[in-house]
Design goal:
13% strand; alpha/beta; 10 helices; single chain
């Protein structure tokens, strides 16, 4: 753990333009690790006018326990977390995941996981709002049970309905640029293409499509959703220009979820900074690190 803290500490001196004030009013109080990390994010993620410091969004499924989920969430540094409306005890009559997520610390993003029709997804979104979770929704309408690929037409239909009802809609979709444009026309507040099938951990399978989406999607955030298996996958997504990465299984199914969440936190930061820095051009032949001009012969 000392080594991990050392990595976070190395991030601290940031360019002053990137710094944000600590929540602690008393300057003698040492900032938390998450404050130190988030203060080094080079820019903020803005969705529908709301600012998020972290560009990592995490899910809450597949953990062995609520406690393990809470530890991983804390380690991730994320400040937005998805909650499946159909898979959580909303009446709080017994122990619930919601007992382990502080809504004052984390922004809850209800999702419609498990819905296979537009009507099902619309009902789930409405339920999430009625019980006080949020009027935001991560919209999922699954079209194929084996691959969990989205039904893009049903997703588009549900987006239109929910936007008209005042929801902030973040739809999970394919990497099809045509449907991405249609979702934007329907009022989506983000476009969330899959990198690979949900829970597969395969990483981004079609980088070219993500690049095309990055060029086309400029009015709302582009958030890579699904397929991330390890930290390098998250870094690649950010280097391709994704504004954020949403993941669940890559963390929850790791042998040490909290440690993997920490790794994902650093991966997203590294990928974002590399994207902003602009990578060198690839070349077929070598270029000397030390130029020959001016060399004493």
């Amino acid at each position: 753990m000392t080594i991990i803290w050392g990595l976070a500490a190395q991030l601290k001196p940031c360019p002053s333009v990137y710094r944000v004030k600590s929540k602690a009013a008393d300057k003698s109080v040492r900032p938390t690790r998450d404050e130190r990390y988030n203060s080094c994010m080079p820019d903020s993620l803005i969705i529908a006018g709301r600012e998020f410091r972290s560009r990592l969004i995490v899910g809450t499924g597949k953990y062995k326990s609520f406690q393990e989920n809470a530890r991983a969430l804390e380690a991730s540094g994320a400040d937005m977390v998805t909650v499946a409306v159909r898979r959580v005890n909303l009446d709080r009559s017994k122990e619930s995941l919601l007992d382990y997520i502080d809504p004052k610390k984390y922004f809850l993003l209800p999702n419609t996981a498990g819905c296979y029709t537009a009507d099902e997804a619309i009902r789930a979104a409405r339920l999430g709002r009625e019980v006080g979770l949020s009027d935001w929704v991560k919209l999922e309408v699954i079209g194929d049970q084996a691959t969990l690929y989205p039904d893009v037409q049903a997703t588009l239909e549900a987006t239109r309905v929910l936007v008209k009802e005042g929801f902030t809609v973040l739809p999970y979709t394919s990497d099809d640029v045509v449907f991405a444009k249609r979702l934007l026309d329907a009022g989506a507040s983000a476009v969330m293409p899959l990198g690979a099938p949900i829970g597969s951990g395969l990483g981004i399978q079609n980088a070219a499509n993500i690049r095309i989406l990055r060029e086309v999607i400029t009015s709302v955030p582009l958030i890579l959703d699904a397929g991330v298996g390890t930290a390098s996958d998250a870094t690649i997504a950010m280097e391709l220009g994704a504004d954020a990465v949403l993941m669940n299984t890559g963390i929850a199914s790791a042998q040490d979820p909290a440690l993997m969440a920490e790794a994902m936190k650093h991966a997203v930061l590294a990928g974002r900074e590399a994207y902003l820095a602009g990578r060198m051009q690839k070349k077929l032949y070598a270029t000397a690190s030390s130029p020959l001009e001016g060399v004493v012969r």
